[in-house]
Amino acid sequence: MTDQVAIVAMSALGALGTSVRGIVEQMRADAVGIRPPAALEQPPKSRRNAGEVPMQPDSDGDRFRAERLLRAALEDLAGADRPRVLSADPARNAVVVGTTVGGMRHCGAAMRAQRAGDEAAAMQHYCMIPASTVLRRATRGMPISGPMITVSCACASGLSALAHGCALLRSGSADAIIAGGYDPMSEFVYGGFSALQLIAEGPLRPFAANREGMKVGEGCALFVLRRAGDAAMDGLPVLGFIDGIGESSDAHHLTHPHPEGRGAATALRQATEVLGPRMPDLLLAHATGTPGNDAAEFKAYVDAFGARVHEVPVAALKSRLGHPLAAAGALELAIAIESRRQGIVPSGAGPEPDAECFPSLRLLRGVPQPGTPTRVTCLAAGFGGANVAVTVSESGTASPRNNVPATSAASILGWGMVCPGGTGSSGVAAFTADCPSTIDDVLARYVDRARYRRVAMLPRMMIAAVRNLAESSAIDNAFLRSTPVLCATWHGAVDFTERYYRDLVESGVDLANPLLFAESVPNIGSGHVSMALGVTAPCASVIGSRNSGLEAMALACARIESGAWDRAIVVASDEAHPLLDAVLSHWSGQPVRSVPAAVAVLVGSNRSGGRPVRAVPTGYAGDACVSASPMDRDFRGTFTETAIPECGAATPLAVAMAAAMAGTGRFQTVHSAEPGGAPWALEFHA
User: Fold this and answer.
1) Which of 495, 549, 607, 668 could disulfide-pair with 488, CB 3.0 to 4.6 Å?
2) Per CATH, which fold does 410-684 belong to?
3) Which pLDDT score, from 0 to 100, does residue 662 have?
4) Is 666 within 8 Å of 440 (Cβ atoms)?
5) What is the Cα–Cα distance from 114 to 106, expressed in whole angstroms?
6) Per-residue model confidence (pLDDT) at position 407
7) Cα-based distances in Å from 680 to 376, 512, 639
8) Weakest mean pLDDT among 152-161, 408-417, 430-439, 499-508
C-alpha cells in the first residue's frame, strides 16, 4: 500500500488574475501584473508598484481582504463544475493554511478607530486579528468540521502547510486536506519591507546584474490533497503527486538567508532525492530579486545539483506576480501545474541573468515556450531562516522516503516550563492568580539579558522553555540542533507589534521602524528559537488560536505517526500586555489579566518510550466552540484550568502536561469565548 499524496483540485488568485487558468493565460501573453497598488490602507509617498490581485476593494476599507482572498479560492475549489473532491464526512475534512499577515489589516482599523475615539469599534476590530478567526470566517458554511490550523514561517508558509497536510493524511488524521497559503496587500508588510530597504524602485529583476530588490505582492493558492488510493476509489482527477518534501532552517539571521544557501540546499536535496539521478524538469525559484537572496539561492542550486545545475530550467515567477509572501510557493506551484496542462513551460520577466555571478543558470524568460514539465520542484524561503521545497510529479514516484511505515503512536518524552511561578512541574503548581506579571527573574537563568535586550519577550520565553526542557530531560546541544521545532502562539509578539503598528499609523508607511517590524512578524518565535539553539531542522510557528499549542501537538504527532519525523519539540507561549487584557476582557465579557509563560514538550515515536499521547479535535460549531466542561485532574489536589491565570497558548498545553504527569487519561480544553476557536483533547495512554 502506498501513502502517496495526490493533488485532486487547486485554485489560485494572484496579480495576473483571479483564477489559475486566467493567470496562465495572462502569462502566455507575456504579461506582468505589477502595477500601482490600490488596496494599501495608506498611500506611500514613493508609489512603487506592487503585485495586487485585480479585485475591487470593498466599502469598508477592505479590512476583510484576507478573508475575501481565502473565500474566493475556497469557492473556486467547491464550484458547481467541479467533482466532489472533499470527503463526504465533514469531520474528515481539514484545513492547513500558511500566512505571514493573517488578519493584521484589522489591527490598523482598530488603531484608527481608537484615534477617532471609538473604543467599542476598536475592540471589535482587534477581535478579528487572530488567524483562526480569519480562517473560520472564510470557511463559513463549507463542509469542513475537522481541524483548521494556521502555520507561519514567513514566505515559506504555503509550502510548509502542504508538508503538514501530507502528514495529516498519511497519519490517518483526515481524509481530505485543503492546504496552501494566503496573504493580502497590507501597510504592515509594505512599510516593513520598505524600512528594510528591500523594495525595488524599478522592476523586479531576478538574478540580474542590476537587481535592486523585491516587489510586495498578494495572493492565495489552495490545493485539495487526498491519499492516492482514496482518490482512485472516488474516481477523482489527479493533477499531480507530491513526491518529495524538503525542510530546513538556516539558524543564521532573522531577515537574511545564509550567504552560502546551506538551508535552501538541504531542502532542495531532500525534495529531489526521490528523482534519483534525474534532474527536475523545472525549478520554481524563490528569486525575490534582492542581491543577497538571489546570490545565496544560486549557491544552493550549485550545492544541490552540482555540475548538472545547467540542466535545470529555472522560472522566477515573482518578476510577474510580485512577492505574495506566504502564498508564494503554493501559487507558483499551481501555476506550474496549470501550465503543464496547457502545454507550456512557465517563465519569468526581466533581463538576462548576470553571467559572471550566475554561470550556468538556465533562467526562463519572456513568452512561455511549449513544453510539459512532468517533474517540478518549488523552493520557498522566509524570514527566520525557514526553507521548504516540494517536488510534484505528473505520475508519481514510489520511494522509500514517501512510504515509510507509520509508527503506532507518538509519546511525550519530556517537558519544561517557565512562568512567574517558577519552572517545570513546581512552577505549574505555584502558578496562581496571585503570581506577579513579570517573568524576568525566571528568564535570567536561561536567556542572557544583554544579548537579547532588543528581542521581543515572546521568543525569549520560548528559548527559556526549550532550555528548561533540555535541562530537565538531559538533552544535549547536538540533539537540539537536529530536532524539528513547532512554536505555538495565539497573539505573537504583542508588545513589538503594537508599537510598530501604532507608529506606522501615526507616522506613515514611509517611516516604519525596521527593528520593530522584524520582531513583530508572527513566526518570530520559531525564527529566534532556531537561531538561539542552532536548530537546522525544520522550524515553524502555529498561530492564531489559544489552542495553538494543542494544534502544534497534533501536527507533531502526525509527522511522527506518518514517519516523516522521529521527534519534535512543541513550545507554546504568549506575552502579557495591557492591550491584550483589554481585548480579551471585551471578548469574554469578564476581566482578564494575562500572565507571561511558555511550555515546551518533547514528542517522539513510541519506540523511544515515554507517555503515549494523541491530540484530537473534539468538534466545531459554526463560529464558536462546542461547549463542554473542562475535566478535573489530580495534581497536588483538584486542579482545574481556571485555577491559573490567562497565559494564552501556554495555558492548555501546560495544564495538559501537568495532567499527563499526574496520570490523568484525558485532558479536554474548551474555550467557547474564542470566536473561531475549537476544543481539542489530549489523550494519554498507558
Assistant:
1) 549
2) Peroxisomal Thiolase; Chain A, domain 1 (3.40.47)
3) 63
4) no
5) 12
6) 47
7) 37, 39, 18
8) 430-439
